[in-house]
Write a structure and sequence with these properties.
The protein is elongated, with a radius of gyration of 18 Å. Strands 1-2-3 form a three-stranded antiparallel β-sheet, with no helix packed on it. It starts with 15 loop residues before the first strand and ends in a 17-residue tail after the last helix. It is 31% helix and 12% strand. It has two domains: 47 residues, no CATH class; 41 residues, no CATH class. The longest helix is centred in the middle third of the chain and has 13 residues.
């Protein structure tokens, strides 16, 4: 029995064990088309080799530094790219952890 309060109290969701491309596989081997994966998954898919390699490079160098105290070359480069390609006078970026903070 799960100790998690899931979004539906009537059923316990399938246990996901892996994902690749647009599909998630559960513990029994059943594959599901991931039509609810979120913004990054929707445009990149699961386990894309280039995305994984970029994530590993960053994690190996610096996994996290709180923005109240630190900046990093990577986040500065991202801010520059975002503001360079943003419309109008959007010249600054403010990074947060998720939609609730945004």
């Amino acid at each position: 029995m799960s100790q998690i309060i899931h979004r539906s109290l009537r059923t316990t969701p399938a246990v996901a064990v892996s994902a690749e491309g647009a599909y998630i596989t559960d513990v029994s081997g059943k594959r599901y088309l991931d039509a609810c994966g979120g913004a990054a998954v929707s445009c990149l898919g699961h386990s894309h080799p280039e995305v994984l390699a970029a994530m590993h490079r960053q994690i190996d160098q610096l996994a996290y530094a709180h923005t109240s105290f630190f900046t990093s070359e990577t986040v500065e480069q991202l801010a520059e790219q975002l503001t360079r390609t943003a419309p109008g006078d959007l010249n600054y970026a403010y990074f947060v952890s998720g939609g609730s903070e945004a």
